[in-house]
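Z., the sequence and structure:
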Amino acid sequence: MVGVGWVVLIDDWLARGGPAGAALAFLAGGLLLLPVAFTYGRLVREIPDAGGEIAYAEGVFPPSVGFAAAWTMVLSYAIVCPWEAVAIGNLLARIAPGLNSAPLYEVAGKTIYAPRLAAGLILTAAIALLNTRGARASGVFQDVATFGLLALVLLFLALGFARGTPGNAEPLFARPGTGGALLSIFFVLQVVPYFLTGFESIGKESEEARADFDPRLFRRAIAGSLIVGFLFYVSIIAAVAFVFPWKELVAGHLGTEAAFERAFSSRAIARAIVFAAFLSLLKIFNGNFVAATRLLFGLGRRNLVHPALARVDAVHGTPVMAIALMALLTGAAAFLGDALLVPVTEVGSLAVGVGWLSTCVAFLLRRRGMPNAPGRAAALFGAAVSAAIIFMKVLPGVPGSFTRAEWIAFGLWSALGLLFWLTRKAR
């Protein structure tokens, strides 16, 4: 769930909402998504299937509706991968400015540099290779990166709160006046779903769990990951605003590492934060790559896309064609560079909303005629939250709704899905 947004986009979050607005948005967003997490937990226990959303939709939605929801959910994972492939160059350039050399071309006013692009493509190839080796290799890698990140971040938080002062966090909200606090929270809340995406990915790997794994633990893992995720973001926002005047950070387009470096006058702490972000980037890239490829595998196994995507390596048991396709899409998108970063978060928020809504509605349809069934209230609330996420991105009158760039990106992905669907129909 946690990538490098907490380093490279902290200025965007603070500009949108200020310290209190951003922190409250992540807290509110996480709490509102708990019913969605509970619903996924119940369904994963009943249906441990790599197809995720498409598996939950089977028998209660027409195949086309289930495919549309699952394909959109693929986007929510797939879109993270090029984000991280681009962010690796952005991140490394913070400690090695020489990477900002050999300009190639520009996209939306952002220069694409050869060394940064090469770093993203090499990382993509490495993640793809790791995933071909099997779920165990990915899992061990994920554990090392995740716990390494958490240990370093706990250290940064302790240092930040010990050195910082409350005055650095003033003003608490980015927008003054009547209604400014609510508007500040709202502008950050729009991108929160994207940064909390990942708790539901557990279902995509459920088929590859140990044979002795208690299925009841899926629910605990899903809810626990969401809680730790939103508390992580709230803590980081508070620490950065506490340690360094956030208005200066926004004006200078600085990242988390720059705020700590200036507060402590230490280049070493900045490098340590960048290293933590590097671990974070690797684990979220790998985690979303795994989820996307397993969901593509699930679609291929059901003949909803070309069945080649269901091809499994005879030695390692991994979906090799789905891995190859995901690597190809990621590498191609990486050529768009930094211009990809902020629009991607907007599109990702809509994509996860569609997947979460379909899952909550599928749960309710599976409980038809059972008004007292456990989990119905959570699914109803989760469906309402998911629908609200979708509406605030697609309704033109809502502040922060889709611009032309986001509609183009979403339209291209939908067109690709339609092509896969029509190819499936034509066979």
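Residues 56 and 342 are 31 Å apart (CA to CA). Residues 5-426 form a domain with the Amino acid/polyamine transporter I fold (CATH 1.20.1740.10).

Let me know what you think.
H.
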